[in-house]
């Protein structure tokens, strides 16, 4: 279980995300990636190996400035440390970007269920079932937060998840079970992370999340519910 960061606010998200991943490097990892929301949809870069590999990729292939994004350092449990298996995972329809720390123990039957419906997977990870399931809920009419609650109810194991929806680039939704999640409350900006080290440079207002919760954050609001939607 390595590093998770989500950011929404006035700063350039790429800089905040890479900085946060740098601050969580001490935890160890084998790959790193970020995704940001833009007017033209999600944009992401991910690379196996050191964070410097991701930074080189971002320098060679720059991404647009954005005010919302997610970042991840991975310690592989399912699938080799490759670019494709690095997080974020983008759903087959391009709508959802999601990062995961932990292990989804029942990923195999969930993956089989989705593949039987024609969903094309792009990685060997356990994590990708979560991005594809969230996208399926959204395709069936759910908002991102309801989709995350529905998916969280189905996952077994340990997870911190953070997701964003290409068509709602003001909102991050995070979820946790048996894995840490902390929210950072700034002045007109919000952070969600696996570790306060990720955002301590930007705010000292931190809220540690309890077990089995979903948190919805925009740059100036937050809401916490259980997996059934009870505040
Ligand atoms: N189980 C996931 C994977 O192998 C997440 C590992 C992690 O916590 O970094 O990709």
Question: Your description of this structure?
Answer:
By secondary structure, the chain is α+β, with helices and mostly antiparallel strands. The protein is built from five helices and 13 strands. The chain has helices at residues 13-23, 51-60, 107-116, 128-139, 144-154; strands at 3-8, 31-38, 41-48, 68-74, 89-90, 96-104, 157-165, 172-177, 182-185, 190-193, 206-208, 213-218, 221-226. The strands form two sheets. Strands 3-2-4-1-10-9-11 form a seven-stranded antiparallel beta sheet, covered by helices on one side. It has a six-stranded antiparallel beta sheet with strand order 5-6-7-8-12-13. Strand 12 and strand 13 form a beta hairpin. It is globular. Bound molecules: glutamic acid.
Residues in helices, as a percent range: 10-25%
* Main β-sheet, spatial strand arrangement: 3-2-4-1-10-9-11
| Unreliable segments of 5+ consecutive residues | none
- Number of helical stretches of at least 4 residues: 5
What is the SS-derived class?
A: alpha+beta
Radius of gyration: 16 Å
Number of strands: 13
Mean pLDDT: 97
Order of helices and strands: EHEEHEEEHHHEEEEEEE
Q: In percent, how much strand structure appears in the residues?
A: 25-35%
Main sheet record:
7 strands, antiparallel
Assembly state: single chain
CA(first)-CA(last) distance: 28 Å
């Amino acid at each position: 279980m390595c590093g998770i960061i989500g950011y929404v606010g006035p700063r350039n998200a790429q800089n905040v995300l890479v900085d946060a991943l740098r601050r969580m490097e001490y935890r160890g990892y084998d790959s790193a990636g970020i995704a940001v929301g833009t007017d033209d949809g999600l944009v992401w870069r991910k690379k196996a190996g050191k964070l410097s590999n991701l930074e080189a990729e971002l320098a060679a292939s720059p991404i647009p400035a954005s005010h919302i994004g997610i970042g991840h350092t991975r310690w592989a449990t399912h699938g080799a440390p490759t670019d494709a298996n690095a997080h974020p995972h983008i759903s087959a329809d391009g709508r959802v970007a999601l990062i995961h720390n932990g292990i989804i123990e029942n990923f195999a039957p969930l993956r089989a269920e989705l593949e039987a419906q024609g969903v094309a997977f792009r990685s060997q990870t356990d994590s990708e079932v979560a991005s594809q399931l969230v996208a399926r809920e959204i395709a069936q009419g759910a908002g991102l937060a309801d989709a995350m609650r529905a998916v969280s109810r189905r996952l077994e194991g340990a997870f911190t998840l953070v997701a964003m929806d290409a068509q709602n680039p003001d909102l991050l939704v995070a979820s946790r079970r048996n894995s840490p999640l902390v929210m950072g409350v700034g002045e007109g900006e919000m952070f969600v992370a696996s570790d306060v080290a990720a955002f301590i440079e930007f705010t000292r207002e931190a809220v540690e999340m309890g077990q089995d919760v979903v948190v919805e954050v925009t740059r100036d609001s937050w809401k916490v519910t259980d997996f059934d939607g009870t505040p």
